[in-house]
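For reproducibility, we list the full input for the DOR complex.
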Amino acid sequence: MILLHNAYLATGEREGDGAILIDGDKIAGVCFKEKDGSSKLPSSAGGMSIPYEMLSDYLSRKFDNLQVIDIQGKCIMAGGIDAHVHFREPGLIQKADIGTESRAALAGGVTTVMDMPNTNPPTISAAALKEKIGIAAEKGANHVMFHLGVTNRNVADIQRIINYGDEQTGISAKDFAGLKVFMGSSTGNMLVDSGDALEEVFAMNQKPVLVHCEDEQTIKENLAKAKEKYGEDIPFEEHENIRSRRACIKSTIKALEMAMRHNTRLTLCHISTKEEVEMVRAAKISNPDITAETSCNYLWFSDEDYPRLGSKLKCNPSVKGASDRQALREALSQGLIDTIGSDHAPHLESEKSGNYCKAPSGLPSVQFTLPVLLTVADQEEIPLTRIASVFSEKAADIYGLKEAV
Ligand code: DOR
Ligand code: ZN
Ligand code: ZN
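The corresponding predicted structure, in tokenized form, follows.
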């Protein structure tokens, strides 16, 4: 048994001085110091209240194998759950792989990740999912979970896997975290544009549905206009006008409308505009299972950074204006943003050094979510309870990863 003593604890509900009792690989108790100086013992230690100052002496007497570690006032939060990473394996391992990226996650305090399906082959079948699970197991990356990708044609197959499991591979609903729908195409061209397929997925409420919202037609038209104006030499600043706020808003309206109609367990991935913040605020009233994710890309950068960073800042959706960033920070503070996904999307430097049309979209960021969040919390006076919630606890709720203490 281990007692992490003299810590500053931050959970989704509460922050303050306290201690954590660990039994093997499980947390056996979280003991906050109450206002009157008392602390409630974990039920495994009797459950009564004693003076906080006596906690380590008392538990040392009770458990003779207790190791007390003095945390000296440092902050302890639960490990991060990043439900949105692109780890590139299989098929794109020149960019990165499950081994390297899962270690980067751990280095950034992220102890569970969920990998997106736009690999090669894409994770759109039980067989492809089984292959990925096998790779992660081989690499000892047991903190990597996977989302299954939706296509225009595989919805019936997904429904079958959820209902009955896949006999050939043994894959069943417990083997994937959620369903990923690209309502706008990005790296990997996994666009779902069939109205029927979308309706069917949104009506399926056994699994969380994660959507990338950017209207394809709007982007195409904007890109054509930019090409007409600039030829092949489109400046990276134009990314915001090509992958425009209008493209995001249009697609997000469509997703929210369907999710309100079907009561979908919808997660809007990486929202990037102030309009989407307001839409989420309204939509949650009719369907509280709608959740919103943003990434640190949009909390940290703004369009003022394009001239300095060029292709390094090219990601989909695009980074928008400073007022969008501010609205997202306020939404984080108010609890409208439910989760922070890194949208970790590594590419080779050689690929990123191409011109606008060639340079792929995405930033490698899984290791930096926590430092960015803590800095933003400091700048905006956001309590650590909010950070603990968006970094970890809410995702545990959405994906059913909570275990009773
Ligand atoms: O910028 C992005 N990069 N957005 C996506 O939707 C996909 C990702 C990737 O996989 O490169
Ligand atoms: Zn996306
Ligand atoms: Zn993504």
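The mean pLDDT is 97. The pocket of zinc ion (ligand 3) is lined by residues 84, 86, 116, 343, 345 (CB under 6 Å). Both points were considered when choosing residues for closer inspection.
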